[in-house]
Amino acid sequence: MQQVATVHGGEPNPLDSTGLCLLSLDGGGVRGLSTLYILKGLMDRLNLARPEGSPAKKPCEVFDLIGGTSTGGLIAIMLGRLEMNVDDCILAYIKLMKMIFGKLSKRSLSSLLGKIEPRFDANKLEGAINEVISSCGAKPTDLFNDQADRGCRVFVCSITQETKEIVRLRSYPMRNKPGIPATICQAARATSAATTFFEPASIGARRFADGALGANNPVDEVEDEASDIWCEDTGDLKPLVKCFISIGTGHPGKKAMEDNLLKFVSKTLPALVTQTEHTEKRFIARWRQHYDSKRYFRFNVDQGLQDVGLAEYQEQGLIESATEGYLDHQAVAFRVRDCVENLKSKQSVPPTLILLKRFGLVFSDQNECMWLTSYSGIRRAWLFWNNGRARWQVPFERNTKFTGREDLFSDLTQKLQQESDATTKIAIMGLGGVGKTQLVLELAHRVRERCAVSWIPVNSLANLQTAYRKVAQNLGLSGWDEIGVDILEIVRTYLSDEAIGPWLLILDNADDLELWRSPLTSEAGAKRLMDYMPRSRHGAIIWTTRDRKVATAVARENVVTVRQMDESGASEMMRKYLIDPSRIKIDEGLLPGLLQKLTYLPLAIVQAASYINETGESLKTYEALLSSHDDEAIELLSEHFEDDGRYSGIENAVAKTWLISFEQIRHRSSLAFEYLGFMACVDPKDIPRSLLPPSERSSPKQQTDAIGILNAFSFITRHDDGSAFDLHRLVHLVTRGWLKKTGELPACHKQAVLRLSELLSDISQTNRARWRLYISHAQYAVGGDEKKCNKEEVNLAEKCGDCLYYDGRYREAETVSQMVLASREKVLGLEHPDTLSSISNLGSVLVSQGKYEEAEAMHRRALQDREKVLGTEHPDTLTSVNNLGSVLVSPGKYEEAEAMHRRALEGYEKVLGPEHPATLISVSNLGSVLDSQGKYEEAEAMHRRALQDREKVLGPEHPATLISVSNLGSVLDSQGKYEEAEAMHRRALQDREKVLGPEHPATLISVSNLGLVLVSQGKYEEAEAMHRRCPQI
């Protein structure tokens, strides 16, 4: 059977069960019976599909909002406010029409002057309405809006006689929109007081007429009303709508118009008919996407009702027959089927309450809850759900073969549900491969509709920061892409805001104890990673770790230990993962022994099943292979993943499983094994496919097949988008052990270093998006305890340090720069030019962290040795002169700084020429140090020269040119030349926004500078706007 449910992130879209269902009912007198027969067709088919014995649903249990005009308004009141089923409503409607239209009023049809007079008795209309109200157990004097909390809201359209404007009478309160205190009967009279048919209805001092003249097809009114209720701030209703149904009363033709008189007949009613049809076409065009995706439906009998007048109650049989024929038409039948399929999944509980309960936003106070479900509270909850990327940030799909562990889920659920005024913290501890990650992944999928979920790998600080940056980007947090920003603090601040609702933060593979209990840097007051954990009573943090010390450090006594599976659970898992169950039937007696040798470890079971599936071998053959390999090799490979919880008396079957898999992969595809060896030499998390080494000997298909083999053996896990994958941490370690044993590790490591050097050949800031993919892998390749002496490794480390520096990750850049310097000092000597470049780079990194004394020492050493080795006028020597001058400015050593910059400028002019970019840097720097000393005239001359020459050499929009524009503006401001200073800062701001983007730190400087010069001129309003913009940037 065709389904209309959509898929959202691999799961059914909650919109299909909790989205809004809206019903719009046209006006049309007696022909309103056609509306009811269409609705009966829908409801009968809907209830027929319900489980046997289930009570039939009424429209008020399906629709969240029903709006109607004229007789459509009467039907809306009966279905929604009086909560009638369709069959009872049809009987009541027929009786009501007979009572109303059975006899004309005694008054004449029109006056001599053509004034339209009512044709029917309003008292009969009122009496008929009161009879219907009383039959439903209500009183005619009951208020239409009696403040009761009903799942279905109802409104009807009417027109005020005084202003001729459309008004909506509601059965529910609306914020900032005072209601009209009408009884049920008065609301019904107001919407059905059709001109030429009845006297206008009175409510207090106001008079109302039939709303059909302004909204005979009230679908626009229903849309506007729903927007006011559920998304008043944005008006973006469409993402909230599950099903929107509009039902007409049949195409009226000319006969309906003949029921009216004079000008009303010749002008007004034709416009009414045209308005209904135009509204239908216009609305379908605007809601085309919902129409095509089977979420918007319009039903209206197109043939057979042309000769039925608005008051011809005796045509009941014709109306029923024409409507039945319409519904049986094949094209209409398909739409009816799709509509019913849509409605079948609707939950009867109001979607707003369901949504709020998911996010923990429902209050015990009924009035407060009603207000929240009606207005802006629901918008916040809904938008929080609707932002799929921000709310669900987990890199893995649900494991449909997940088995057992219900005792652990019970424990975890109990811990998560404990009431607390602090963040819930839980650590899940166990042996590598025991299934911690899969357990938390299943938990995440189980709670994803109740809270936001973010997944962070913690195998390295670099990966953690990358994942945090991605979370911040998806959440749209300000500053996520700024260089040097503390991304951990940004995310911590956001999650600590209790207004955002409940969330779950998963920190996977948190195995480094020092990362959590020690400061991240050696600076005074530096934070530990633990200090960056958010605090909210609506939040929960779950760590997975192999180390019990880490578990108790982060969660204290709140530790859940994942142990080996029992034989029953392990057997069920093996049966789920084996493609051919008959293999177990053949060797049923061998299964317990095989599972025992696999130590009931989930990862070992999955890999064993993968091997059997791939090779087609029997369990008996696999067990024989597992038992036949060299114990010495197994012991060697086991050394890489020993834990405190070692198994006694049982061999480490994980290593045996992987040893078998290694050989099988190498036999099937040398390229797959090459990829595995390569991945063992880079960070195991987030390995981009583009990182894998290209191979001229293999086709794209062979490369894809090689990756598929690794995936088939469960060695790698693909990310959802297929652009990257993860190598299991233990597989990574055991593979390195295997490569060491075979003597292949050095070659694999060299291949990884050369590939990364190739990919990082362009580390310009404009290429940041690309080289960011490879930083963590470069860090891994050049890291480790051993000293890096290989030239290729040192060069890669230098590039890695530059990338970290450009990315504002100065602490990490310092660590790498120190390593490069130590290696070059050892291999090349203290005074080698490359060594001196490393000293200079380290000095620049230190300056960026405010470590001016150390930076000054580095730059003085670089300068001294470059003067000795290269000479006083070598460009590299002059670079050190310039760098030393810049670092001297920060501690206020202006005289020496000025001397350095004058020397650098003089040397550059002599060696490189007056217009060389390096020369112009010195011109600019000298201008800045002169400005700092109050030597404004000379500073201005320097900045004007730098600007003029940079415009000529680099162009007017080059970032360096814009630095000169900004510097000139600042020195002009210092001299009180405000108008020209303002012009400079406006130019710098405009061009930086264009070239660098509105959120670049340099752009922010221009915003601030412009604000300051505006203040100096008394332009306070614009200055305030500039300064208010700064925090947002």
From TrEMBL:
Transmembrane segments: none annotated. A motif (DGA/G) lies at residues 210-212. One of its GO terms (biological process) is glycerolipid metabolic process. A motif (GXGXXG) lies at residues 27-32. The active site is at S70, D210. InterPro entries: Acyl_Trfase/lysoPLipase (IPR016035), NB-ARC (IPR002182), NLR-like (IPR053137), P-loop_NTPase (IPR027417), PNPLA_dom (IPR002641), TPR-like_helical_dom_sf (IPR011990), TPR_rpt (IPR019734). One of its GO terms (molecular function) is ADP binding. This is FabD/lysophospholipase-like protein. It comes from Penicillium canescens.
